[in-house]
Amino acid sequence: MDMKHVLLSSKGRIGPRVFLRGLVVLTAAFILVQMAGNFVSPLFGLLAYPMVYAYACLFSKRLHDAGHSGWLFLLFLLGYFVANMVITGLFLPILSPVAFEAYSVFGQDLAGLMEAMRTQSEEFEHLTALPTQSSLLLTTLTSFLLTSALLGFIASRLPSDPGPNRYGPPHASSAPHS
């Protein structure tokens, strides 16, 4: 398996097994980038943006193997954002209660915030301190892993075209066995 082709080229086809291997590599790399961004320097977070290209290449080739346009990756990207928001919303109060409490205070209207400042200034300062990235790390990684697993499962279950299609011949892992 040529990882350079799998992750950096949107041309061709890959079968479900190669797709899942590539997804595991990208997911592990993304987790390392997120952790480095939290514990080493926030500049590491910038490495996440080029990884979107690698995800686009990976999903495009899997979509090509199923006979679909790689542009359908945009639906997976949209699905990622929606699923990630839902999963984050579900896990934020459980995995990051301090951040959840702070965000719920920010969600109040301005009058409520002003009243809270006057009556409970010390407690309010504690609650309205912006949550640090490290307090959100567990929630962020959990929602990322669950969302990636869900979308990876969907993409891997796409039926492969058994023969050549407009995107090329079948990849060795998706070719019919003789």
Number of E strands: 0
Global Rg? 21 Å
Number of helices: 8
Structural class computed from helices and strand pairing: mainly alpha
| Low-pLDDT sequence parts | none
Q: What is the overall silhouette?
A: elongated
User: pLDDT average, as an integer?
Assistant: 84
Listing every helix as H and every strand as E from the N terminus to the C terminus, the arrangement reads: HHHHHHHH
Major sheet size, sense and barrel closure: none
Percentage of residues in strands: under 5%
Kindly report how far apart the N and C termini lie.
21 Å
Helix coverage percent of residues?
Answer: 55-70%
Structure write-up:
The longest helix is centred in the N-terminal third of the chain and has 24 residues, at 16-39. 69% of the residues lie in helices and 0% in strands. The protein has helices at 3-8, 16-39, 48-65, 73-95, 97-106, 110-119, 121-128, 133-156. The protein has eight helices and no strands. It is an all-alpha fold and 178 residues long. Helix 4 crosses helix 5 and helix 4 (73-95) packs across helix 8 (133-156).
In short:
With 178 residues, the protein is mainly α. The chain is built from 8 helices and no strands.
Key features?
mainly alpha, 69% helix, single chain, 178 residues
Topology:
Elements: H1 3-8, H2 16-39, H3 48-65, H4 73-95, H5 97-106, H6 110-119, H7 121-128, H8 133-156
